[in-house]
Structures are given as C-alpha cells and as structure tokens.
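Handout, section 4.2: multi-component inputs.
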Amino acid sequence: MKKILIGIIVALTLLLFWVLIVPQTADKHALSEPSESRGGDFTLQSAHGPVALHDFKGKVVLLYFGYTSCPDICPTSLGFTSQALATLDKTELDKVQMLFVTVDPARDTLDKLKSYTGYFHPSIMGLSGTPEEIAKAAKLYGVGYARQDTGSAGGYVVDHSAYTYVIAPDGNLLKTLDHGAPPAQVVETIRAALKKG
Amino acid sequence: MTGKFHSLRIAACMMGTLIAVPALAGTAAESISVDNPYVRIVPPGMTNTGAFMAIKNADGKDHKLVKAESSASKVTELHTHTNEGGVMKMRPVKDIEIKAKGEAVLKPGSLHVMLIGLKQELKVGDNVAITLTFEDGSSKKVEVPARMIQTEMKMEMKQEMMHDHKNMH
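Output:
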C-alpha cells in the first residue's frame, strides 16, 4: 500500500515537473537567455558604418537592447534617458553616448533605427548586425531576448531585457539601471560615471 | 405541438429575464468612469502605440473590459506586460478586470489598449476615440488625447506631487 502511495506521489511530481517545465521550453524561440552581465567590447553596424564600444573610450556609454516595433517598453526607456540627456549641459553631453542595439534585425533597418532613435534624442545611435553579432553583444551584457508569436495582429513581439547598461569611460560596466529608472536617477548615474573618467 | 410552444415560451421568458435583469441593475458602462486617458505619440514611421487610462468602477460588483475599438487604427487589442527577471514580455489579454469599487490602471509597462496599424500619424492636439466594451455588451466611448512621452512624464510627476500634497494634509 505504502509503495503504491509513494509511486503515485512520484508520478504526480514528475507530471507537475513536466507541466511546469516542458511547455515553456517548447513554445519559446529563445535567441539568448538572460544571464549575468559582465560587459565587454563589441562591434556592430550603425547608419554611418561600423561602430565598436572602444570607439567611445573616455565617454560614458549608456547601452540599451530593444527594437523599434516595441510599442511601450523601449519608448519608455528611451523617453526617460532622452529626458536625462536633455538635462545635461553641453560639456557633459559631449562625454556621453547612448547606444540602442536592435534585437530585431529582421525588421529594423539602419535607416529605421536612425529615425527612431533621433526622435528621442539626436545623439542616440542605433546599432544592428547579423543575428550572431547581436547575440554575441547581448551575451556579454546578459541580455535575454526571444521572438514570440503571440497571436496579436501587430505581428511578432520580441521579449527582451529592459535594463540600461552604464559603461564607465574606461570601457568597464559600471552599473545596470532598471526599466523605468526616472530621468533624475539616470542623470545622477551619468554624473557619477563621468567623475570616474 | 403545445409542448414545443411551451418550451418556446419558457425560452422567451428566460431571454427576457436575461435582458431585463442587467437593465434593472444598470449596465457596466453606467458604473464605469475613465480618468486621465492618453495615447502615446510614437516616433515617425511607427504604426503601433499604446493608450493608457485609469478605469474606475463605482459599482458594488466586478466588471470586465472585454474589448476596445478605435477607428484610428486597423486593429485594437488589450495587452499586458509581465516582467520576468528583467525580461519584459508583452502579451494580448482576453479581458481586464475592474474590481467592485476599484479601478484598473492601464499604464506604461503594464496593461494597455494597443492600437495596431495607426491610419495616420498622431500629433499633439489630436484626439483618438476609443470605444470600451464591457462584459454585458454595454460600451463607453472615450476621447483620448495624444501626448508626447516627455509630456506624459511631466503629467505623471505633477500628479504624484499633487498626491503627496494631499497626503500631507
């Protein structure tokens, strides 16, 4: 009797495990899993040619991964950051570079990225690359993203990490800002990072 | 024959009751009010955007927003966001519950009305008409002003300040 009971418990546990784990891995087109953010150099394409992180040595870099058809999360992040950039004086602004890396290279052309980022702030640079190049850069920063077909008429969405990575003038990752970090906090972080340079 | 007629009569009575009861109690739309609605102006070339608002329910029972429609876009859907370990996931939802004497807050990074395929670019000063339909089929038309992201943030801060101010007294 006891053996049957244990058998049933084991079977139920396995069933629960299967229900919880299996469907998630089955319906997800994971392009990159979220992981620890270590930082590091990368080279991608901008509308004006190739751009590497080390090109901005001496500047504070704000790095964000998103996509232009993102209707809410990316505009909120970029809106807050652009508000912060608008608060900086010219000498400060000259030492800051915001980079927006697409996680949807299939739909985001370099021109589209340029007009999209320009809407928020003229200094923001949009970057793309091959899916492999983007995945490599994303991995360095622990960015997770996955294409999802949700059945919405708006086409597929790309789930993605919504952090802003703050890179110090020496190229090292300094801080990770949460999604929706208010402009005042972004300004404070930029100014603290500038002092490190 | 009479049996058939009888059951038809019962069905008619039931139908009548179904229609009459909600009418007596007032429709969902009658107890719903919408606060601070706005639709976000998107960068040039972008055709999808979100509309946000606080939907308040003065009724003693829960209601549900089941549909949103607008002539400003090709398709209008109800969506939400979830944050899973920093990864933001946007998904369509079947309905949005508005608790009795409570409210459902549609805001960036959370629940929103998604306008897909905007027929024309939104500018400051534009209004978008959105019709909200509730679980009993009743509906409410809301005039939603278009706002820039920067203005949204200022309005939110102002509201928070007003809120803090109120709390001080």
